[in-house]
Amino acid sequence: MSLLVPDSGLLFWMLISFGVVFFILAKFAFPVITKSVEERKNYVETSLNSAKEAKETLARVEEDSKAVIAQANKEQGRLLNEAAQQRDKIIAAAKQEAQAEAQKTMEDAKAQIQREKDEALLAVRREMASLSCDIAEKVIRERLSDQQSQMALIDKMLEEVVKEGGAEKWT
């Protein structure tokens, strides 16, 4: 008997032991292992499909978000333009109102200056008339200090009135 060559009886029992172990493994272990491998395969396939769907969904979400961002930027630009136009309108209205107020103030000031000027001229004229009357009175008193000069002045004035046609007014 050699150590390298097995005996035929040993070989027979080894084959029977192998067959029994194989039968037990085939009956009980292989279905469980096959089932686990199949479940793992299904899980991996499901995970891959889910990953593909997630990737596609992510791509759609990215496109949608880009579209939303572009729309938001467009809306922001429109709102900024509207705000700038509104600001310009408000500034223009304020300028017009300020110009109208300045024009009104200027016209009021001119009217006030004209009234004060007219009042001052009237006061000067009254003062001049009063002074003229006072001066004329003093001059006439001095010139007409006697009765004869008074009568001469009256006659002279009557002649001037008659020459100018003023006598018709009195008749």
Index terms:
171 residues, mainly alpha, 92% helix, rod-shaped
Largest sheet: none
Radius of gyration: 65 Å
The tally of helices reads 3
Share of residues in helices:
over 70%
What's the SSE blueprint?
Layout: H1 8-143, H2 147-163, H3 167-170
What report would you give on this structure?
With 171 residues, the chain is mainly α. It has one domain. Helix content is 92%, strand content 0%. It has 3 helices and no strands. It is rod-shaped and about 200 Å long. The N and C termini lie far apart (193 Å).
Question: In a nutshell, what does this entry contain?
Answer:
92% of the residues lie in helices and 0% in strands.
